[in-house]
Amino acid sequence: MITTDESKKISKFRKINLSALEKLFSIYEIKQNDNVLIWCDDAKSIAPRIAKTIYLKLRKMNCSTSIIVDKHTKKLGPASKKTQKAIKSLKKGDCFFSIGSGNRGYVEEKGKHVLMKELIKKQGFKMISLGGLSSIKAEKINSFLKSFNHNEKEVHKLNQKLKKLLKKTKEIKITCPKGTNLCISLGKRPVICNEGNWREYSTNYPVGETYTSPIEGSANGIAFVSSAKISGKTIIPKKPVKFVFEKGILSSTNSKSINDNLKYVEKFNKAKKINNYKNAVRTIAEFAIGTNRNASIVGAMICDEKTLGTCHFATGNNKHLGGKNYCHGHFDYVITKPSIWFDGKQIMCNGKLFL
Fold first, then answer.
1. Pair (194, 72) in one structural domain
2. In whole angstroms, what is the distance from residue 90 CA to residue 34 CA?
3. Which of 80, 111, 134 is the last residue of a domain?
4. pLDDT value of residue 129
């Protein structure tokens, strides 16, 4: 692993009281003398504070700890060359923390986007990802940190029950009190549980969701969204945003911020010569259910989507989930208090799971 220390760039930030840090280290089996790379940015957000807290803890554990601090960005694009070089130097047993305020840059090989999933599989390192933290307001920070201290047994139990059901489900219907009425179809795609099971490539933290990639042309109907991911941040609209799907494609939404983001992402994908880039960006990519009781809607999608009593869908790239749609960008949208049916059998009512 390439070693570098840019901790001076975040010296002005205060560390945080993260009581669940021991749980995180235990789940990912981080121990003394491990090689660890931390990648963060210098934005005025919770991200560099978390990075500093983890960095100081690792140093106390005598870990060989490197830290790279890049400039905060809201734009899509590759990571800096030094960051890519450091990531590519990670080996089996090494640990990688990606802690970002906005978009994380991606890794390229000969001009092509390299899926982190494939890089981890090839090189054998562990990864913990905390991204898109810039939009958490100060009064929501404690709620966000609470989500780290999840009930491991409960999350595992709910995830496994949902995984078993999703594996044999063909049709999903979703409604909600705000007016959602959305139907999607599933095929024989992987069903993935995010619960810190890093050996199976579960890297996002906090944990707590079960997800899969729907058949790309299958989403039809209306969804009302209460938390939405756009490039570089998460927005919580004053009123739920309306999404309309036709044959798997997001045909319209009444949010200016989301429409502006779609136009930006379409332009980016056009420049990257992605086939059928407009539809690729708007294609249904994911369906998931949150299973973390300690998570709540805080304005960071990495936490919002894990909230027990919610479900979410995404548009854009789903190759990393076992789907067929490839493009730059993957954007999640949360529905609160949903009612959900798997092949006509109700498994959730207004956010309450029947499992």
1. no
2. 12
3. 134
4. 93
